[in-house]
Design goal:
489 residues; Rossmann fold; 5-stranded parallel β-sheet; 7 strands; binds 2-acetamido-2-deoxy-beta-D-glucopyranose; transmembrane helix; membrane; transmembrane
Length: 489
């Protein structure tokens, strides 16, 4: 590896000295005092130089085009062409049988040795020499261009901020990001900010909120952690995109965003926002789920709708309008659309919003991201499970009220990740339906403002326990969830 490095830097030095030599030789040629071979050599070098100049111009154009949404694909072509055949080779050479295995077994330690050795032996020499030795020169030339571009457009390669909001699959996406930070860099030149923990990025929006008096949490009183995160982003390669993900960003207003932007502006990056939309009804159901998953007496869905008294759908519109007013670009995407199309927020954020790939490059990117997706990280319990807990709790309080002498233990049943509750729920009579229409006008407004692709089909209906149809045997089943001594005989 050391040898390769040396070779590349020597080659670079050679190239540099030849450039100087070139102008001398061209001059000599004009005076007609050179033989054919030298002339040919000079001609070849001129072509090489011209090509190099052109390529740099492309790099320059690319940065400008990133903002110019009309020609987004250019970035990719460029970036990918810059990275050598090595990476393509890697991708092609990875045996296809290995890939599904990679997904099943979880992480890189478990990667089949074939892939490991391939990654260790083949890539480094070529790729690292490229990354470590060649890149500096590319970066140097790029840095000059950056200054020019920064003057023209105000910013350069994007900081892509995924802002959730809550309950749109954020934890799963963040788990993907931190587990694959290294892969994203090697494969696509994407840096992952705040990759030390799934929720580490939350320090930025939460500290800003705290500074604006919007919350008072001792955890975010000291801005040190946030400053460190900003600093780390500042050290990430300027000529490649960065992804930062925290659903807490969805709670920032314009003033808070401006604080954030002033930090990023120093780094001359564009701020591109990825915001996910959930249909109003699904969002309500999901929030109900989150709020009640560890409750021993969960609200019924209807009660939760009334208690929250609306607002979640409008909240999504408000978040959208806020980020549209502050960001260089906003990429809206429908959670339900992605589900229908069988791909994830991760594929969308990486392949669409960040790399802006199209056609077969996009397909390839999507497929390789999907293979690396972790399982769902924060699974929801089915609605009927909450009904079961609520009904069982009602039964328990009745036993207590009747002074059941042996009923002394506390009721401690919860819906979340509870297989006993699930088993009972499966045996209850249920009633299923959808209320999507009740919220669809606000959903439509969101699709309209973002131009996001809409989900086609109807969501799976929500199924609740049909309480009016409960028979004695159902109550007996519910009773099995009660503490011993409290169960009905
Ligand atoms: C998504 O997957 C489902 C089930 O595997 C399939 O029925 C459906 O056609 C797929 N949709 C698309 C757009 O590929
Ligand atoms: C992502 O990009 C691909 C390729 O251009 C496109 O077909 C797809 O519709 C995009 N997805 C979304 C949700 O916009
Ligand atoms: C949004 O609605 C307006 C007016 O109904 C319509 O003209 C426009 O094309 C819509 N935009 C999108 C992106 O659907």
């Amino acid at each position: 590896m050391q040898a390769t490095k040396q070779f590349v830097s020597t080659a670079w030095l050679n190239l540099q000295s030849r450039r100087f030599a070139l102008s001398r030789k061209t001059a000599n040629h004009i005076f007609g005092s050179f033989d054919m071979i030298t002339t040919c050599l000079a001609a070849v070098l001129i072509v090489i130089l011209a090509f190099a100049t052109l390529t740099r111009k492309d790099v320059l154009c690319v940065a400008v085009q990133w903002q110019d949404k009309q020609k987004p694909a250019a970035v990719q072509t460029q970036k990918h062409d810059e990275k050598t055949a090595v990476q393509r080779q890697e991708r092609d050479e990875k045996p296809t049988a290995v890939q599904p295995q990679e997904r099943d077994k979880k992480e890189k330690d478990e990667k089949p040795t074939a892939v490991q050795s391939q990654e260790k032996d083949e890539k480094p020499s070529a790729l690292q020499s490229q990354e470590k030795d060649e890149k500096p020169t590319a970066v140097q030339s790029q840095e000059k261009d950056e200054k020019t571009v920064a003057k023209q457009s105000g910013c350069l390669f994007p900081l892509v901020v995924h802002i959730g909001p809550h309950k749109t699959g954020t934890t799963t996406f963040q788990t993907f990001l931190i587990k694959n930070a290294e892969w994203l860099w090697k494969e696509y030149g994407i840096s992952v900010a705040a990759n030390e923990g799934v929720k580490a990025a939350a320090y930025i929006p939460s500290t800003i909120r705290q500074q604006h008096g919007l919350q008072h949490n001792p955890k975010f009183a000291d801005p040190k952690k946030m400053q460190e995160l900003f600093q780390t982003i500042g050290t990430m390669p300027a000529n490649s995109p960065v992804i930062l993900s925290s659903e807490e960003f969805s709670t920032l207003g314009t003033a808070e965003w401006n604080d954030f932007k002033s930090q990023i502006a120093i780094q001359k990056r564009c701020v591109s926002i990825v915001v996910v939309h959930r249909r109003g009804l699904n969002l309500r159901a999901s929030i109900w789920n989150e709020v009640n998953k560890n409750s021993i007496s969960p609200d019924s869905f209807l009660i939760s709708l009334l208690r929250r008294n609306g607002g979640e759908e409008e909240f999504q519109l408000k978040v959208l309008d806020t980020v549209r007013s502050i960001a260089d670009s906003v990429e809206g995407v429908s959670y339900e659309y992605l589900r229908e199309a069988n791909y994830s927020i991760a594929s969308f954020t990486v392949c669409n919003a960040t790399l802006r790939l199209e056609g077969s490059k996009w397909e390839l990117c999507k497929t390789s991201v999907e293979l690396r997706m972790p399982g769902i990280q924060n699974p929801s319990a089915p609605p009927a499970a909450f009904d079961v807990v609520r009904l069982a709790y009602g039964l328990y309080t009745r036993q207590k009220a009747a002074n059941y002498p042996r009923c002394r233990k506390k009721f401690a049943v919860r819906a979340y990740k509870n297989s006993a509750v699930l088993r009972v729920a499966e045996q209850m009579p249920t009633l299923c339906g959808s209320l999507n229409e009740a919220f669809s006008h606000v959903d439509e407004l969101w699709y309209n403002r973002t131009g996001a692709l809409k989900p086609e089909g109807r969501e799976d209906p929500l199924c609740f326990v049909d309480e009016g149809s409960l028979k004695l045997e159902h109550w007996a089943l519910l009773s099995t969830l009660l503490p011993p001594g409290c169960q009905i005989m």
